[in-house]
Amino acid sequence: MSTTEKALDIQGLEKTYAGGVKALKGINLQVEQGDFFALLGPNGAGKSTTIGIICSLVNKSSGTISVFGNDSVTQEVAAKSCIGLVPQEFNFNQFETLLQIVVNQAGYYGVPRKIAKIRAEKYLKQLELWDKRNANARELSGGMKRRLMIARALMHEPKMLILDEPTAGVDIEVRRSMWAFLKDINQQGVTIILTTHYLEEAEMLCRNIAIIDNGVIVENTSMKTLLSTLNLETFVFDLASGAKNINIPEFEHRAIDDQTLEVDVPKDSGLNVVFEEFSARKIKVMSMRNKANRLEELFVKLVKANNTPSTEPIAKGEPT
Amino acid sequence: MNIAANRNFVALKTIWVKECTRFLRIWIQTLVPPAITMSLYFVIFGNLIGKRIGEMGGFSYMEFIVPGLIMMSVITSSYSNVSSSFFSAKFQRNVEELLVAPVPTWVVIMGFVGGGVARALIIGVLVTCVSMFFVDVKIHSFFVIVVTLVLTSILFATAGLINGIYAKNFDDISVIPTFVLTPLTYLGGVFYSLTLLPDFWQVVSQANPIVYMVNGFRYGFLGVSDVNHWTAIGLLIVFNIALLSVAYQLLKKGVGIRS
């Protein structure tokens, strides 16, 4: 198989549901091998339908999908073997043990039981679930269930992992450990496609991005390029005190509290003026950072530009 | 074995073992009730009432009803095993585990139907063992017994699968057994010989497929039957081909499982 082949190549994909709802209106999308790709969009935009069609859970109306050069219809077995899916909803048998769930999943892909057991130990250990291997899945916490679905998706060692909101509803500690795990397997060469409502997550993990809204792709570019289209960059300064007394006429700024100041700095401007103001007022700067919601601003802008009212606001760092 | 055949064999074995593990895990719900129910049938219909009925088809009433009761358990258990298992897989959405994997449709069917057949055969053996406490079980043709038993359990396991495919809620998987399967079984000659019926109802009864299964099975045990046992086996093969084809087409199209 050529390394120039796309991990995923979608052409003219359309889906009209039985009730007449047109969920996808001819989308084209390419994902490079080894990429960490974000597929974002408001609720009902068509993300899950797209993933469902790629993974054979939803019948397409028209269009073609190729996975590592394998057509999803004519080379269905090869295409399916390349994909591991971590769905949005828990969809394992709640009455089975973790070991049964992951070993059975490997069996569906033709992995012999002996090898499946070795892999089960590897992935359950990596995802910190090995101690629970003989517990029923229903006994797990939400974060454990999410990790179980990742372990299950990896059992046939797919070249591409598709995660549909994998960190929804899990605490920050588990989320961060999942990010580290996903980064690690991506570095090992696994292509990852991620949908998420945590835009900070997409910004932190993904190299390329597509934004889908109302069944059409409204943006498809690299994360870097997309973020560079922002004219303003917001810096957050953690000060010893005195944030409320700051006055910098050149830039928009706001004091979040007396120790925290946010300053919107145009891309072609330096930060010297800000530091001069701090020095003039003898304010001690404890630390500074970029505000990590740049993608969120772009996301809202692009979706608005598509002239589609979002039914639910995208909250900062919170599940919707 | 080539790669595809090997992959399919592993997948089939996985589904079948999973299905068997499921009903064995809940054996108290799946294996014990038929044995208890049939014991009650043997005690009440066979032992108490049967003594007053006298002979039927040249055999004691108890001997006469044993094959039918075994067949009744086999039909019910093969059907309910697959309908409930497949619907549960849909309900919990773990049928998606199969849909995303490269498992051919026929492997899915064989795996689920195989699970239903396994449960039916275990029930068949259990009920036969129970019947031995009440009657001296005779075997006229072991071949006919095995062929009828296996074909019947495949047929009703497939019917259960089709029910599971169409079912949208738990009521949907109990409607057919309650309103179709049970009446057809009771009217299928389990408790009586068709020759006892008026001519008109004898003809009507021949439209009931369960008549052929019960009588074919009875022939295997007693050597007597209201219908020709080869006709019964032939019809079972035809019904099996028809239902398996329907199940294949439904799953291939994704009816009830893909939007």
UniProtKB/TrEMBL annotation, chain A:
<dbReference type="InterPro" id="IPR017871">
    <property type="entry name" value="ABC_transporter-like_CS"/>
</dbReference>
<dbReference type="Pfam" id="PF00005">
    <property type="entry name" value="ABC_tran"/>
</dbReference>
<keyword id="KW-0547">Nucleotide-binding</keyword>
<dbReference type="InterPro" id="IPR050763">
    <property type="entry name" value="ABC_transporter_ATP-binding"/>
</dbReference>
<dbReference type="InterPro" id="IPR027417">
    <property type="entry name" value="P-loop_NTPase"/>
</dbReference>
<dbReference type="InterPro" id="IPR003593">
    <property type="entry name" value="AAA+_ATPase"/>
</dbReference>
<dbReference type="GO" id="GO:0005524">
    <property type="term" value="F:ATP binding"/>
</dbReference>
<keyword id="KW-0067">ATP-binding</keyword>
<dbReference type="GO" id="GO:0016887">
    <property type="term" value="F:ATP hydrolysis activity"/>
</dbReference>
<protein>
    <submittedName>
        <fullName>Nod factor export ATP-binding protein I</fullName>
    </submittedName>
</protein>
<dbReference type="InterPro" id="IPR003439">
    <property type="entry name" value="ABC_transporter-like_ATP-bd"/>
</dbReference>
<feature type="domain" description="ABC transporter">
    <location>
        <begin position="8"/>
        <end position="239"/>
    </location>
</feature>
<keyword id="KW-0813">Transport</keyword>
TrEMBL record, chain B:
<dbReference type="InterPro" id="IPR000412">
    <property type="entry name" value="ABC_2_transport"/>
</dbReference>
<dbReference type="GO" id="GO:0140359">
    <property type="term" value="F:ABC-type transporter activity"/>
</dbReference>
<feature type="transmembrane region" description="Helical">
    <location>
        <begin position="26"/>
        <end position="49"/>
    </location>
</feature>
<protein>
    <recommendedName>
        <fullName>Transport permease protein</fullName>
    </recommendedName>
</protein>
<feature type="domain" description="ABC transmembrane type-2">
    <location>
        <begin position="25"/>
        <end position="254"/>
    </location>
</feature>
<feature type="transmembrane region" description="Helical">
    <location>
        <begin position="142"/>
        <end position="167"/>
    </location>
</feature>
<dbReference type="InterPro" id="IPR047817">
    <property type="entry name" value="ABC2_TM_bact-type"/>
</dbReference>
<keyword id="KW-0812">Transmembrane</keyword>
<feature type="transmembrane region" description="Helical">
    <location>
        <begin position="106"/>
        <end position="135"/>
    </location>
</feature>
<keyword id="KW-0813">Transport</keyword>
<keyword id="KW-1003">Cell membrane</keyword>
<feature type="transmembrane region" description="Helical">
    <location>
        <begin position="173"/>
        <end position="195"/>
    </location>
</feature>
<feature type="transmembrane region" description="Helical">
    <location>
        <begin position="61"/>
        <end position="80"/>
    </location>
</feature>
<comment type="similarity">
    <text>Belongs to the ABC-2 integral membrane protein family.</text>
</comment>
<feature type="transmembrane region" description="Helical">
    <location>
        <begin position="230"/>
        <end position="251"/>
    </location>
</feature>
<keyword id="KW-1133">Transmembrane helix</keyword>
<dbReference type="InterPro" id="IPR052522">
    <property type="entry name" value="ABC-2_transport_permease"/>
</dbReference>
<dbReference type="Pfam" id="PF01061">
    <property type="entry name" value="ABC2_membrane"/>
</dbReference>
<dbReference type="InterPro" id="IPR013525">
    <property type="entry name" value="ABC2_TM"/>
</dbReference>
<dbReference type="GO" id="GO:0043190">
    <property type="term" value="C:ATP-binding cassette (ABC) transporter complex"/>
</dbReference>
<keyword id="KW-0472">Membrane</keyword>
